[in-house]
Amino acid sequence: MNVGFIGLGIMGSRMARNILRAGHSLSVWNRTGSKCDPLVAAGAIRAASPREAAAGRDVVISIVTDSPDVEAVLLGPAGAVEGARPGTVFADMSTIAPDAARSIGERLAARGIVFLDAPVSGGDVGAERGTLTIMVGGDAEAFEQARPVLSAMGTPTRVGPAGAGQTVKACNQILGALNLLGVCEAVALARRAGIDGPAMLGVVSRGAATSWALQNLGPRILAGDFEPGFRIRDIQKDLAIVLDAARRLSLPLAGTALVAQLFRSNEAHGEGDRGTQALFRSIERLAGPAAGP
Amino acid sequence: MNVGFIGLGIMGSRMARNILRAGHSLSVWNRTGSKCDPLVAAGAIRAASPREAAAGRDVVISIVTDSPDVEAVLLGPAGAVEGARPGTVFADMSTIAPDAARSIGERLAARGIVFLDAPVSGGDVGAERGTLTIMVGGDAEAFEQARPVLSAMGTPTRVGPAGAGQTVKACNQILGALNLLGVCEAVALARRAGIDGPAMLGVVSRGAATSWALQNLGPRILAGDFEPGFRIRDIQKDLAIVLDAARRLSLPLAGTALVAQLFRSNEAHGEGDRGTQALFRSIERLAGPAAGP
Q1: What pLDDT is attached to residue A291?
Q2: Beta strands B45-46 and A132-137, pairing class
Q3: ipTM for the complex shown
Q4: What torsion do the CA atoms of A17, A23, A27, A31 make, to the nearest 10 degrees?
Q5: Which residue of B14, B94, B95, B200 is 20 to 30 Å from A12, comparing CA positions?
Q6: Which domains does chain B possess?
Q7: Span B179-200, average pLDDT
Q8: How far apart are CA A142 and CA A121, in angstroms?
Q9: What's the gap in Å between the CA of A171 and the closest CA on chain B?
Q10: Which of A41, A96, A98, A33 shows the shortest CA–CA distance to A70?
Q11: Between chains, do A291 and B174 touch, taking CB under 8 Å as contact?
């Protein structure tokens, strides 16, 4: 298929490469143009604007930071909607608010473009390997139209109408945040009680207490490895979306709110660029020096 | 080996049977004597007191409710310590406070008995199948001595000195509680936003948001199935132990405390005998009727 791709960050550059590898024709645009170079060297067409990236394409993928960025590249001056022919499917893979996704979809529909919200989970490793989980909201027929392109990047699942992909991504981030808080509090208790961390992790990882976070982030916390995987400033952006969506729905989420506040403490201590597992540092600071039993 | 077994509740009766099946000689005692009948029919020796259950035994297992029960059956009148010969290993598989386990161990040591704290996770299904996770604190040599008996009930791992088994069990319960809170808040958001629950669970269960709780309790919550597996009143007993241990260590555990308060709301609504997944009911009551987006 003819595919346009907008946004070549850590995730986008890897995802675009998998689309090329799957044999699709690909035009690429990025705000910092030099990020296009490796993909152009691999066979992609350089576009001078989102408009140009969308011209003559069947499917246009975008993955940028937040709602205003999505609006700018799709609906702003020289935006993708200006170049696309009617009937083109736009799939935005950024994590943005469900309401924003619905609003963007409505404005695009008025211009003859079909919009899918299609956020991902799986991180840079999933992007690299083409094993992302892709949560798609929007029209079922448009989903089938975009499926060959989405499948080049991971496993797409349609979870409901417009906005549903973003809502499921929000659920995903709630789970990730609270699973991680559990890991941090368990490690904190073990450490304060003088228990061998790896022995504790080894035993509890095999039973009903287990989670991806425990198995993957637990060992990094024990090793004092707070390098990102997924950055605190990025999960905070996502949790702000979750809590705002919950506010609009009059839904209290006490646990998620607590984790967001603890991550805010990380930010206050200059740890926004650490990996999410640095949540443990906030727990440690709350704990202070051990008073001893 | 010659084994004594004290406490034939939901867990103990199944665990004792697996010891019999493994070919050990077994004497059994339970406060309500009739609970011994099926095991006696299967070849166990009926004991008239904990003292009698421990007489002439190499290993004595106890699994009762809380610290006072453990103290009563091991150290009280006609307690196991009165019947046991010096060098016998006592393994208590109840979930009690780490400090209580250490204290009981010291009092038994003064009488020539070696004590292991050996709480379990895996529930009635794990007890039935002999697949419990067994977290053992105490002397390494005593652990080797008890291992053939413990192995008949599941997978025993020594995690450290006296009390360490109970501390690791506390870590296990922290993780289970916070993983479950994540599931409840994610399902609440999906439901309030009108998203199909099974579709959401299916997608997020495959990625970095996954946990045992999500995969096993998520579907029950969606189905409105709040039958126990593990009862709210039992996890509340365990979380009280966790929070008390943390208090003694001057360790704030904001997330665990939040879940305990939400379970208290369940208890206030007469749901103590529901399964832990009924935590979702507390989240729902917090949420109230949907105001709509």
Answers
A1: 52
A2: unpaired
A3: 0.95
A4: -10
A5: B200
A6: 2-161 (3.40.50.720), 167-287 (1.10.1040.10)
A7: 97
A8: 21
A9: 5
A10: A96
A11: no
